[in-house]
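Obj.: predict assembly geometry.
Materials: sequence records (below).
Method: joint structure prediction, all chains together.
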Amino acid sequence: DTAVSQTPKYLVTQMGNDKSIKCEQNLGHDTMYWYKQDSKKFLKIMFSYNNKELIINETVPNRFSPKSPDKAHLNLHINSLELGDSAVYFCASSPSFKYEQYFGPGTRLTVT
Amino acid sequence: GEDVEQSLFLSVREGDSSVINCTYTDSSSTYLYWYKQEPGAGLQLLTYIFSNMDMKQDQRLTVLLNKKDKHLSLRIADTQTGDSAIYFCAEKGQAGTALIFGKGTTLSVSS
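Observations (raw structure tokens):
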């Protein structure tokens, strides 16, 4: 199936831990994104990469570090997890800056 | 700054038409989008409209754009229970890359 996939789908962890979320797209797109959806369903951009280069870095704590090993992958590493990091994290991709974005299924992160 | 506003809830009966409204602030937006999110699922791109268009129709979906008033609407004809979901309006931000989302309209369809 051609799609944007994320792993894991659910992640439950304790405060202070470090965790990673992986994203892969097989659509041949150049641009990838991470969005955060909070408990009120509000969606906000975190990062955007184009051809493995960081393009957008919104006001996100530096505990969050994206890494793009190649155009098809954009991973999100989070250090020293806090309760407020609990949210659903969505990866997305688009053919370039200009075009529509396709979203992955989301990773529900719960920090206890 | 950029902002996208939507009403939070809409309740309709099966078979009726649903109209979800959205207003945005960035007059330089080139594309405007509608996404659908079913419970526990990701965001599904429903449709989008280029800013030089007034209307776009795709089967049961009709998008209307009033660029002067910065108003976007999504009409769903013959609404079905399977249309129950959260609908997000989004515009491209000034940086031209990230999407700026509204808070989403929860559509509830009763039979």
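Conclusions so far: The CA atoms of residues 20 and 74 of chain B lie 5 Å apart.
To do: check interface contacts against the pulldown list.
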